[in-house]
Design brief:
The protein is an alpha/beta fold. Helix content is about 45%, strand content about 15%. Helix 8 packs parallel to helix 13 and helix 9 crosses helix 13.
Length: about 375
């Protein structure tokens, strides 16, 4: 009798053990991997609760737009933080101003300081392999993100943003919001291209885009996203002969170009008024340049990030470029309303009139000064 009872208990114990093993196997997540923009197959941790974003400075704004939160962020770089604290991001996500930044300086990661933050995952710039190697050496999974995926398409900014959104959405397992963002960017680009195609060649303006301007150093954009901005909305890109991403210009070259319109990136602390008043660069006389005489110098806005490079505000930046370059052609764009709708939908904030002005006219303190 005792033997039969023991046998029954043994059988029940085995059954319970087998059942628990099945449940344990079901509960254990399968290993997830993603292929990042550098072509690396990255094995992701089961739980991603602590994230650092470095190198690719606009990416934090895209992360916040996708997730609606900064809860999992444990570190960003100082350039990202500077843009955040001097922009509308400071109202939407004030926590960005408090995040640690000392673990990275001049794009170089201090591994010891990074480890103190205990990140489960780090997003880095794909064009700075040392960042990836530092994370690898520290045993931290690293996903590289690139701004140069569409170099053969004039660095198409909308496609670049959408590629960032897709990669982050895959890593963070986000779907619906990502799809909406991608569709909106594509719709804006298609609409702008359609209008641009109606502009006669003789009516197209000659455009100079300054990637930066600090002290007396004038840096023109070359083969970069500046070309995408300009040509997508219908402008003649005057520095297409620059083979590299950027190149320094002297005033004599600018006098020869004599652009109809000048665009200045918001990395610079200068403003259009500095051009009009000849206070941009000591001893540099802008008064004879057509764009200055016609008061057609425009500085890229600062929204959730600087609008000059790819960012979460890329569709808005494209509409801004269109409406400033050809206000009559793109007269149907109500940019104030587009900004209000976009920020309310993706950031949950109602933009005030004062905040709109701050977006259009960034403060001197907000300049990146690269």
């Amino acid at each position: 009798m005792k033997k039969r009872v023991l046998t029954v208990f043994t059988a029940l114990a085995c059954l319970a053990s087998a059942t628990c093993s099945v449940y344990a196997a079901e509960e254990k997540k399968e290993t997830r991997t993603v292929v990042d923009h550098a072509g690396n197959e990255v094995e992701l941790p089961d739980e991603i609760d602590r994230i650092a974003i470095v190198g690719l400075t606009p990416l934090a704004s895209v992360y916040c737009m996708l997730t609606g939160s900064t809860d999992k962020l444990v570190g960003i770089d100082s350039y990202t933080q500077n843009a955040a604290v001097h922009s509308i991001m400071n109202r939407a996500f004030p926590e960005l101003g408090e995040l640690p930044t000392s673990f990275i300086e001049e794009d170089v990661i201090n591994t010891e300081e990074l480890l103190k933050l205990g990140p489960d995952l780090v997003f880095t710039h794909a064009a700075i392999p040392d960042q990836y190697e530092a994370c690898e050496a520290a045993g931290i999974p690293c996903v590289q993100v690139s701004p140069n995926l569409f170099a053969d398409e004039d660095y198409n900014v909308i496609k670049t943003l959408n590629a960032w959104v897709e990669l982050l959405a895959e890593v963070l397992e986000i779907d619906n919001t990502a799809s909406e963002m991608i569709a909106y960017g594509e719709q804006v680009e298609n609409s702008v291209r359609e209008k641009a195609s109606t502009i006669p060649e003789e009516d197209r303006v000659n455009v100079l885009v300054l990637a930066n301007y600090n002290d007396n150093t004038i840096t023109a954009a070359g083969q970069s996203f500046s070309k995408y901005w300009c040509e997508t909305v219908g402008g003649n890109y005057m520095t297409d002969d620059i083979a590299g991403f950027t190149a320094e210009l002297d005033m004599e070259s600018i006098y020869v170009m004599n652009p109809d319109v000048i665009y200045l990136s918001s990395f610079s602390a200068y403003t259009p008024e500095d051009f009009y008043n000849n206070t941009a660069g000591e001893g540099q006389d802008w008064s004879s340049v057509k764009a200055v005489q016609d008061k057609r110098v425009y500085k890229f806005p600062l929204g959730t990030y600087y609008w000059y490079p790819p960012s979460s505000d890329a569709p808005l930046s494209l509409m801004w470029m269109a409406s400033t370059m050809y206000p009559e052609v793109y007269s149907e764009i109500d940019l104030d309303q587009e900004i209000r709708d976009y920020y309310e939908k993706y950031y949950g904030i109602e933009v005030t009139d004062e905040e709109l002005l701050n977006i259009y006219f960034p403060s001197e303190e907000s300049a990146a000064n690269w």
